[in-house]
What we know:
single chain; 77 residues; alpha+beta; 2 domains; two-stranded antiparallel sheet; 3 helices; 16% strand
Amino acid sequence: MHITLDTAKAIYRNAIDSRASDGEGATWWDEVADEIRNVVAARSICAAHLSSGVTVVVRHSSGRGPRRFCRQCREYP
């Protein structure tokens, strides 16, 4: 699914912060749009959480090394 920058701005303003303006800068909006596209393209809710980057916790289990963990889903993807 192709999400334009203007669509990403509308999604962000409706879902997160209605006060966000174009004054935030092109680089910031490009990063926001990329995050929205990643969440939309995710194959599961847990994958969407992880792609947003805010719910990832790295856990070290004995001998297994670091693992990603989704705090919202409470699972290892």
